[in-house]
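Appendix B. Extra example for self-study. Work through it before the problem class; the solution is given directly after the inputs so you can check yourself.
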Amino acid sequence: MAALETLDLSELSWTMMESQERPLHVATLLIYSLPDDAGPEFLKQLVADLRDSTEFVEPFNKRFVRPSVMRPYPVWERDYDLDMEYHVRHLALPHPGGERELGVLIARLHSNRLDFNRPLWEYHVIEGLENNRFAVYFKMHHSLVDGIAGVRMMQRSMSTDPEAVNTPALWSAPVPEELLESNKGISRLRRGLTGMQKSIRSARQVSRQVMEAIRAGGDDRDPFVMPFQAPKTILNGRIKGQRRFATQQYAFSRIRRLSKAAGCTVNDVVLAISSGALRKFLREQNALPGQPLTAGIPVSLRAKDDQGAGSAVSFIMANLATNVADPHRRLETIKASTARAKLMMNGLSRDEIENFTALFMAPSSVQTALNLEGRTSPIFNVTISNVPGPTETLYFRRARLEAMYPVSAVIHGQALNITCYSYAGSLTFGFSGCRDSVPSLQRIAVYAGEALEELERTFLQAEGAEGEEFEAAKTARAGKTRTSKAANE
Amino acid sequence: MAALETLDLSELSWTMMESQERPLHVATLLIYSLPDDAGPEFLKQLVADLRDSTEFVEPFNKRFVRPSVMRPYPVWERDYDLDMEYHVRHLALPHPGGERELGVLIARLHSNRLDFNRPLWEYHVIEGLENNRFAVYFKMHHSLVDGIAGVRMMQRSMSTDPEAVNTPALWSAPVPEELLESNKGISRLRRGLTGMQKSIRSARQVSRQVMEAIRAGGDDRDPFVMPFQAPKTILNGRIKGQRRFATQQYAFSRIRRLSKAAGCTVNDVVLAISSGALRKFLREQNALPGQPLTAGIPVSLRAKDDQGAGSAVSFIMANLATNVADPHRRLETIKASTARAKLMMNGLSRDEIENFTALFMAPSSVQTALNLEGRTSPIFNVTISNVPGPTETLYFRRARLEAMYPVSAVIHGQALNITCYSYAGSLTFGFSGCRDSVPSLQRIAVYAGEALEELERTFLQAEGAEGEEFEAAKTARAGKTRTSKAANE
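Solution. Structure tokens for the complete assembly:
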């Protein structure tokens, strides 16, 4: 065993907050086509080969060691002798192996906790997916990975060469220098959090300053969303341990066409799709509040005092306008709200951005320490992340990656998470929710499909010249939209 | 919701001791043949039908409610609105769907905890088992069921009629009067434990009396095994959360023939098989202690002062003679040890039996309260249970029950559990163990197969007249012994 490593405050929060009701792992679901010449033993052999890959890059060899009498704080220990039959698993779907059966299995796997006596990851190879496909469900603890880092991990263990047979296992793939570089934002965030740990008192002061800096810029008609302005909804109570999962997939060209027509960002379209889906879902549950729902959205920002090349990972809050029936006005409200939030954040110094980010991206233990919990309103109603992924088609040992879906963690106060990945011309949504708090979560995915259609009708038909494009979009959609039936089970 | 029900001390111990490292559920693995005319939708339809069975007999509707500020003790609440998609699950085995794949899946399912927010059971229908078979893994919390009650539950939801199509779901099957009657032993045990709760002081006194009553009958050469005489082994440390599972199956006629030839009970043969397997396994691990391992064995007893019809479920400890190389002398030692233990127990009054039982069958929280934990030696090394099951072939909605295996719980200090069921001419062993404490658990199952062969060579060939029977046994064995490959994964 190599030297022990102390956890930073972010890692500490994510590991110590882990519980039976609130497992804090995140996952990616990958859908592959089997190579044309794959025999019945292909996946069995793949699993055997993967189990033989026993070189581990960070953080696949990090094992969490609980506090003890001798050492009252937890540490990471390096483990080079992993039980590969535990970490690499071979599963199957029952007949007929459709999206429904896959969604049910993923929801169940995502409800199971990682074993804290081992490095905090599992890699599941799932056979029996219809149309000659298989799936991989890769799960890692949130203390070790976030959405962006997760997608990059995936990417570096795949190849753009359809014939490459020696693509490394995910846990053995070397980390290229430029990826280390691009993780700086996260390292900085961690430093910020570590700073906080040193002095909660100074952190309180910082948070007050940040809040005042934000507040100073606004007036009553300002579309800027303040923290804790969110209404209480069924999505914002305490969660339990079981999960639901549903997916939606779009051709990226549809999203881009719409953003062009509406004069907004791709992110705004993602928010408008989510808003339309949530509005319909909550109305059906007789649970749509009169006030608009708000979303917390991780974004890349460049600070006003930033001379360097890197951008900072930060966080904005947006008005989802779920109280607005008209889809046109709904998207316009969202657009104004995100534009205002980015303007505000760009006016902050890097230190201010980092403190703001640390404050609102950190799990609620930090918020508790800062006396922010226990307010009557949620900080915001739902996290919506849009994680840019690889643009080229990827292959893993001759199996073509068809789609890639995020499966996220939910926490007390936020029983639903919406994350999307872009990959090779498609945009995929993963809806992850608490089984008990979000009944019929599957419908949110279905309504997300309808929400894009509604936006297309509004913004593409409105512009006469775009009529043709709208027809093209409909054609593309017919072949491209796929909705899983996960949440009904 | 109906009235709340307070937990008795046994239920309280089993529920409160539940943890991530030590899930306290027990399960049964059932192997069925598909009806000859079953189409590809047979299991999907079966699962759908089972999910529609929403009548619940005790204890399938009991939900555990945690202590709160308002009510500082846990209670059972009745739940009549179960989430059947959670409780009844449809799974599949990867290709080729052999015993190995099944064992791996069962070990994983058994590592997952039940959701304490719902009634504490799950029913898994597993398709893809080779030779036109499927499996059911039924899991329930140990606070609600023990081995004997579990087998009876199974039995009443099946039929001896191969054509019966309306056999009730396990959770809807009415409980016949005679089964309620035969559970008296357990109720008495529970009363005994409740009595203890009322006065730990009096319980201490009782335990001292029982120990003295036992001690009084013995001398140095006495084969009676005292509690805490067990050597420390790799099976007796603290456990972790992941499990291994392996099985072994014999024709019951082989066991009976051997017991007749050796002049011992069927139970003694079960112990001798376990002993032979453990001896070989521990030697191979360089972990066989010089002192013999001891086993704790649930038995049915009739007390000396018992005038009534019922027998009491109690508990004896036996010398497994794992330090004896000669299989003949090994079985003789076991036989003397169990005979002596039963003689001793039969000399106790019903009250004494019940207190002794309560003391050693209860989970260790009770033992802690009685200051029995923390001694340097384990109470005993391994639990070995032999649960008599149905003798006739059973069917569930036209699917023939081929075999039935117990999947048990393990606890700190006892990382291995050996339980067997008898059913329709066969005797099946389930070996359940902690994944980290018992490496290569599968070998114990393989060695259990070899152990019976060794005993047959010793006792059947020794008697000239039995030579022919031995040959018959070998023939029966060839077709009947089936070993799962579970533990290697």
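Self-check: Chain B touches chain A through 34 residues (CB under 8 Å). If your reasoning did not lead you there, revisit section 3.
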